Amino acid sequence: MWLLLVGLAVASLLGMARSGLSARVPHCAAEAPRELTVGVLELASSPSQDRSRLQVAVRRDHSLKCVDLSGRRLRLNWHFPPPIQVGEAWRVEAKVRAPWGYQNPGGFDYERWLFGNGIDGVGYIRSGERSLPPAGDLRQRIRASVAERLADRRHGAHLRALATGDGSALTDADWALLRRTGTVHLLVVSGLHVGLVALLGYGLGAAAARLVPAALVWLPAGWLAAAFSLAAMTGFVWLCGADPPALRAGVMSGLAALAFAGGRRAPAASWLALAAVGVICVDPGAVLTQGFWLSFGAVAVLIAGFANRLPVLGWAASLFRAQVLMVLAMTVMTATVVGEVAPAAGFANLIAVPWISLVAVPLVMFSLVATLAGAPFDGLGWALADLAVSALLNGLKVLGGGQSHPLPVPLGQGLAALAAFACALRATHWRARLACLPLWAAGLMVFQDRPAEGQFEVLALDVGQGSAALIDTRSHRLLFDAGPRFPSGFDVGEAVVLPAIAATGKRGLDRLIVSHGDLDHAGGAAAVLRGAPAASVWGDAPELNAKPCRRGERWTWDGVAFAVLHPPAGYARSGNDASCVLQVSAGDQRVLLTGDITRRVEATLAASGLAPATLLFAPHHGSGSSSSKRFVEAVNPPLVFISAGWRNAYGHPQPQVVRRYRLLGSQVWMTGIEGALQWSSAIPERVVAYRRERNAIWAWWVNRSPANYLEDL
Fold first, then answer.
1. Quick one: which of 556, 609, 551, 616 has its CA closest to 586?
2. Looking at the DSSP assignment, which residues form a beta bridge with residue 590?
3. In the chain, N or C terminus with fewer CB closer than 10 Å?
4. What is the dihedral of CA 442, 445, 450, 452, to 10 degrees?
5. How far apart are CA 17 and CA 701, in angstroms?
6. Per-residue confidence at 682, pLDDT binned at 50, 70, 90?
């Protein structure tokens, strides 16, 4: 039996991998705009309504260039869109590309998320016109009715998320508060809500069996309660769009209800394993989602924590134990699976979980049923639910007010903490629990190979169209630039740079240098400093009380020499030409970081007797206004790193710039293609490209780099 179940799971995974990879949008699709007829599956708009993010199914590809996209599922942005409704069909002109995301140590894996959720490509819509009005979809009509009923409620967006799984009206500030307090799972439809609905349905079925004994002629009491539970759970999952988290919880709850009704006494772990296999068979991509591991991990913790203890503890003690276990477990599992932990999460969940479970969700479910039934008293229910959510959010604001964002956690540290928690959970004696302490101690350490004395390492992060590079010596760490921050509010410093700092060793910084004030270099600096405080800040960042970069500044860390080559004191220019230029050297190995300097500054540096460098960060992302022939010949670098986004709007790097470096015999690497790039002065001829290495080792969902992209420029 177990071999059959495992075989089904493996077969489903292999089928998902094969079909998912073959359905992916190829790179050639991005060569020209495409005319598509699409059906709108999901819709999320910004609070200002100036942009929308749509998930669409391609009904017809009118372009048929390179590939037919019919049948594929895409995630598209539309700036300043016309009114759109889910279920409509639109004929659009869109730019579509292969799934592509940042590839760095640590941080959110966007490509894995896209693959796990069955999204085959991404892009944006240039223009479009409605082809068909929305179909008469019952689910959308219900959602629209609930949204209309909650339009005048103070926390209507939160109530919609709880009632129908529609979180599109939540603002960036709402999501930020939930992340700071580790309570995102409470305000979106998750396993907790589906389980509560199933439990409420079971209770209603049991009550019906007592109030209407005649019903027992057709079904025994247990099976009647299970039928109510299955009906309530199925209806709720359907209303929420059958998203993977709700689907997983639905399978688990359904199996639990049937097992309980049938009087099955199989071990709970067996039912959990069966549910996991069932979920994989229904949705193979679920194994690549964080929610899969968090939801099944949470249930596994409860099973382990209550093994042979329930009759001894009693119900009150059991509820308290369950709450404490879940707070501890979710904190550790989130740190391991998500790679971050909110300092306030433990206490916030200790209060919020029972409040949501015992007060808010029952009120929301009661109000939802009343609204669907057309009962006149549903307004009272929604008012009470609004008060319950308001009280919750006010408490979360107090708890999360002092934290700017969750703290990144290295994978090794998270795994050690998870192992220690599992050890303590299964231990039956206090002495056995003491034996788990070394694992906790290991969790507090970050095992990282540091450079030897007199050597240094460079990690050029993949931050899209921007710049960020970590430089490590034996006991010091410097960050040169901090990545961009976008008008939408997305901060690469927080989303990419901070997790990379945590994942690669020492969390703090000895120095942050902001080359100049452009947002693609300085935008993420404030977020980085909040999460990884620096002993000193240099560069063009007055709002950070930074010390100006000045030529002649020199220092030595662990036998590695650092020197600022530009700008000189009293330099009159600002902007790109005021960029800080940093040289790092150890013996014969030199690295030159140049910011966005132009030919004017390059000529000055070349005239001053600039020493050759082993590794050069190409000025201004490989722009045609930089990398002049004289400068390139003076530096004569065997290796060139270009920090630029894949298919960026500026056309960086320029073809003539790449050719200029190649004529000298330089190897040219681009972060937007290869992901993060790692180099060490101890092995100067080797470059580790994170996307290439990761794809080759285990992450088969990571998209391959476009063949010969730089060579074709």
1. 556
2. 585
3. N
4. -80
5. 8
6. very high
CB burial of residue 573 (10 Å; 0-12, 13-18, 19+): exposed
Burial of 80 (0-12, 13-18, 19+ CB in 10 A): exposed
Number of neighbours of residue 442 by Cβ within 10 angstroms: 17
CB 478 within 8 A of CB 510: yes
Distance CA 62, CA 77 (A): 20
Which structure tokens are listed for 636? Answer: 């004569």
What residue type is 329 in one-letter code? A
Structure tokens at 152: 């005048």
- pLDDT tens column, 585-626: 999 999 999 999 999 999 999 999 899 999 999 999 999 999
Q: Which residue has the higher pLDDT, 432 or 517?
A: 517
225/358 Cα distance (integer angstroms): 20
Structure tokens at 139: 């689910």
* Lookup: tokens for 688: 């580790």
The secondary element (H helix, E strand) that includes residue 361 is helix 361-373
Nearest to 421 by CA among 454, 445, 396, 443: 443
Helix (H, G, I), strand (E, B) or coil at 614: coil
Output the CA angle 265-266-272, nearest 5 degrees: 130
Please tell me the distance from the alpha carbon of residue 238 to that of residue 37, in angstroms, as a whole number.
26
Is 596 in contact with 607 (CB distance < 8 Å)? no
Helix (H) or strand (E) holding 44: strand 34-45
Q: What single DSSP character describes residue 561?
A: E
Residue pair 566/605 in contact by the 8 Å Cβ criterion: yes
| Each residue's pLDDT tens digit, 385-428 | 999 999 999 888 887 765 555 667 777 777 777 788 778 777 77
CB count, 10 Å around CB of 512?
25
pLDDT digits (tens, 9 = 90+) for 108-151: 889 988 888 889 999 999 999 998 776 666 777 788 888 888 88
In eight-state DSSP terms, residue 86 is: T
In 10 A of CB 269, how many CB atoms?
13
Dist CA 369 CA 185 (whole Å) = 23
Q: What is the pLDDT of residues 150-160, one digit of tens each?
A: 888 889 888 88
List phi, psi (to 5°) of 580: -75, 130
**Which residue spans within 486-588 are E strands per DSSP?**
511-514, 537-539, 554-557, 560-566, 581-586
- Alpha-carbon gap, residue 49 to 253, rounded angstroms: 37
d(CA 83, CA 64): 28
Convert the pLDDT of each residue in 338-364 to its tens digit.
Answer: 777 777 777 788 788 888 888 888 898
Burial 302-336 (b: 16+ CB within 10 A, else e): beebeeeeeeeeeeeebeebbbebbbbbbbbbbbb
Burial string for 154-174 (b: 16+ CB within 10 Å, else e) reads ebbbbbbbbbbbbbbbbeeeb
**In what side-by-side order are the strands of the sheet with 639-642?**
554-557, 560-566, 581-586, 589-593, 615-617, 639-642, 667-670
368 or 264, which is more confident: 368
- Residue 600 sits at φ, ψ, to 5 deg, of -60, -50
